[in-house]
Amino acid sequence: MRTLILALLLSGAALSAQQPGRQDKLIALLKAMNMEPVLQSMIQQQMDMMKKLAPKVPPKVWDELAKDLKVEELLVSSADIYAKHFTDAEIDDLLRFYDSPTGKKAIAKMPTIMNESMEMGRAWGQRVANRVGERLKAEGYLDTPQKPQ
Q: Could you tell me the pTM of the whole model?
């Protein structure tokens, strides 16, 4: 879910035109989902990438530029994305869920679950690649490397 949000934000989501009360709820939802550190990390990654592209720029200039990059702007843009996909009633349901003990646990466990899922996917992909490769070799579709003489 976080990956989708980050991808949409990077594609240039428009600034909010939501009703103030609804936008407040959406921002509260994003905060309940612990999105602020994710967005702050995104800002830092963007700054790091720009610094690599312009290594001659003095640190003082980067510090000044960084002051203009606010998590709040990304929260507003993220709220716009959620507003397109959830009704007011669903937003209320999500707020209740993320304020519940189970919702808080889900947020706390999500990084660990995502890491374990990525590792599982990597291992699965390797197993599939090996099985497919062996079958294609066995059926003569892939050349087996020749041993040096």
A: 0.69
